[in-house]
Design goal:
This protein has 16 helices and 19 strands. With 483 residues, it is of the alpha+beta class. The structure holds flavin-adenine dinucleotide and zinc ion.
Length: 483
């Protein structure tokens, strides 16, 4: 009987695979070994096994694939660039889920320069979207270290943040309209380029940040802004996070809306970059030692380079006089500016090279950050002597990547197996005490699902579950993620 049931399931699956190939064309339904790129995430923390990988080529094919899978009771894991950090785009171990790669939906459909909008398909690589805007003298300001691989669909599905949120907002703030395939396989035509549209519930915002659990984003209309005339970057160092927060306050007062980036790095994160990526320049090291804290500031001005440089230098002089910083350098040209950003953006890679680690992508009120760091560093040092803290992030947005690396003398895998859960509890308890969030920009996925149940307001959680049941009653889309 068991064998018969299995046989029925297998023949059902093979009928589904044939249907999927009829929809998407030969070569676009992948099965068997060799699917690691789709079954294992960027950090190699999540592994799964897919029934198949299907690669539709347009919105209509996405809708047909969803309908076919729903009819067969087979669930779908949407996947863009597969750079997500919470296990949301990796199939489970059952071998029964279909991974839907959106990467063939990769056309920029339209740029409307007067309306300052761009419409792109979900599988467009973020860097390609930025380049299309640049070609027209405009800027798409979403920017993150994974931009060469992640897709605009994935960015919206995770409501990605990155390094320009301080000025331009996160993916949600940059999106005006969406085209979505629903869990029932209908196409929601919401590609509006309107900045004002109060015609009922905002369905767009429901899908943004839903991590593929409510619908499949197939295209988006996003906002563009004029290119700034000049961008200036500086690196400053200080002894304590409270000084970095005071520098942020001063920079906001002096630079106003031209302050476009304000990133924080602790000494250990810079040491990791020096160790694993020694080709990257390391300004402001004194006596062979990384400064305790470094701040990367970016200013984007519409007044031209000379004025931008003067404003930034004058700000830093005042910060030096007031004792907020110990030293600073302003990048003299684009190459130096890129070098400073490279230093900041190389931290996740250097950290991965150092070994497995425990990531916390947290948000806090900026005013609470110095106390949070002092208290949590001390508590972790006491509970797990020798553990190493890789603390960096988007200070201007109140977003820290507060990551814990095993002591240098302990095998990382053993350390994680033994202490990950206790460390998460310690860190997230502190986040809650300081009125923060356990996920600032990476999402919930599979990684933080249980933590969400423990920490989210129960009414919010119940409403989220009701929404999921209403929009995806058969549980076709990314089951086991978020709620
Ligand atoms: P994937 O990883 O493929 O998918 C992510 C989630 O979205 C999954 O749940 C998936 O099912 C779903 N999904 C994907 N495409 C669709 C779609 N078209 N429709 C519906 N659901 C979909 N994030 C930040 O916010 N800020 C950062 O600064 C940042 N830096 C990073 C640096 C590095 C080196 C790396 C590796 C990641 C970083 N991230 C950062 C994580 C970030 O979430 C992703 O890089 C990006 O937003 C995900 O896009 P993706 O196309 O790779 O999505
Ligand atoms: Zn980040």
């Amino acid at each position: 009987m068991g064998a018969q049931t299995k046989g029925t399931a297998a023949s059902g699956h093979s009928a589904l695979l044939q249907t999927l190939e009829a929809i998407t064309g030969e070569g676009h339904v992948l099965t068997g070994p060799g699917l690691q790129a789709y079954e294992q995430d960027w950090r190699r923390r999540w592994h799964g096994r897919a029934l198949a990988v299907v690669r539709p080529g347009n919105t209509d094919q996405v809708a047909q694939v969803v309908r076919a899978c729903a009819e067969h009771g087979v669930s779908i894991v949407p996947q863009g660039g597969h750079t997500g950090l919470v296990g949301g785009g990796t199939p489970d171990d059952s071998g029964t889920q279909v991974v839907m790669s959106l990467q063939r939906l990769n056309r920029v459909r339209e740029i409307d320069a007067d309306n300052l909008t761009l419409t792109a398909e979900a599988g467009c690589i973020l860097q390609a979207v930025q380049a299309a805007a640049t070609d027209r003298g405009l800027l798409f300001p979403l920017s993150l270290a994974a931009e060469g691989s992640c897709t605009i669909g994935g960015n919206l599905a995770t409501n990605a943040g990155g390094t320009q949120v301080l000025r331009y907002g996160n993916a949600r703030d940059l999106c005006l309209g969406l085209e979505v395939v629903t869990a029932e396989g209908e196409v929601l035509q919401g590609l509006s380029g309107l900045r004002k549209d109060n015609t009922g519930y905002d369905l767009r915002d429901l899908y943004i940040g839903s991590e593929g659990t409510l619908g499949i984003i197939t295209a988006a209309t996003v906002k563009l802004v004029p290119q700034p005339a000049a961008t200036m970057t500086a690196l400053a160092c200080c002894a304590r996070p409270a000084q970095a927060v005071a520098l942020l306050r001063l920079a906001r007062a002096r630079l106003g809306a031209t302050l476009t980036g304000f990133e924080l790095m602790n000494g250990f994160s810079r040491e990791l970059v020096a160790r694993h990526l020694p080709q990257i320049a390391q300004p402001l090291w004194a006596a062979g030692q990384a400064p305790a804290w470094s701040v990367l500031l970016e200013q984007s001005d519409d007044q031209g380079a000379q004025q931008a440089q003067q404003r930034l230098e004058s700000l830093l002089s005042q910060a030096l006089e007031e004792g907020l910083i110990d030293d600073a350098v302003v990048a003299k040209n684009l190459t130096e500016s890129r070098g400073l950003w490279h230093l900041r953006e190389a931290i996740p890679l250097a950290q991965a090279e150092e070994g497995l680690n425990i990531k916390h992508d947290i948000a806090l009120p900026v005013s609470r950050i110095p106390a949070f760091i002092a208290q949590t560093d001390a508590a972790l040092g006491q509970a797990h002597p020798g553990c190493r803290l890789v603390n960096f992030g988007h200070l201007g947005d109140g977003n820290l990547h507060y990551n814990v690396q095993a002591p240098a003398t302990v095998a990382a895998a053993d350390f994680l197996a033994q202490h990950e859960s206790a460390i998460n509890t310690l860190v997230y308890d502190a986040v809650q005490r300081h009125q923060g969030s356990i996920s600032a920009e990476h999402g919930i996925g599979r990684l933080k699902r249980e933590e969400l149940v423990l920490r989210k307001d129960p009414v919010s959680l119940a409403l989220m579950k009701r929404l999921k049941a209403a929009l995806d009653p058969r549980g076709t889309l990314n089951p086991g993620r978020v709620v």
